[in-house]
Amino acid sequence: MVTQAQAPASFAGSLPEYAALQALIRLGKQPGIDFDFQSPLMGGRLSKGGVILDFLFFDPPDLAINIQGIYYHYGFGPEVKARDIIAREQMAGRGVTLIFVDEDDILSNADFYMREALQYRDHSRLTRGA
Predict the structure, then answer these.
(1) E strand intervals along the chain
(2) pTM over cut 0.70
(3) β-pairing, 51-57 with 97-102?
(4) Cα dist from 16 to 9, 44, 48, 60, whole Å
(5) Residue 16's closest CA among 65, 50, 51, 76?
(6) Using one digit for the tens of pLDDT, what is the confidence trace for 99-108?
């Protein structure tokens, strides 16, 4: 498990995203070669319909992973859930499978959940309908 003290202050993301990044590296994935972190697509947050993907993969080229913060993704009501579902559909239209990994899962066992995500297996609350 990653603690706050283990995430460098210079990291431009959340603690769960840092845990996911470290797990990907342990699993043999290289930033900038196998994936990009915080990739804005279709205008990113600045454009209506734009998305930010936490991890967009070049290898495999049809995979993206977003870390779902409990507070921001599940605590803000159905509008945020709908936006996440729409993002998944937008990516599917581009031939990319968007896998969601929940914050509490990544913090409890990052290697397992990132390995599962790399196999296109989504254990998130959003996918389970919870």
Answers:
(1) 35-41, 51-57, 63-68, 97-102
(2) yes
(3) unpaired
(4) 14, 20, 26, 22
(5) 65
(6) 999 999 999 9
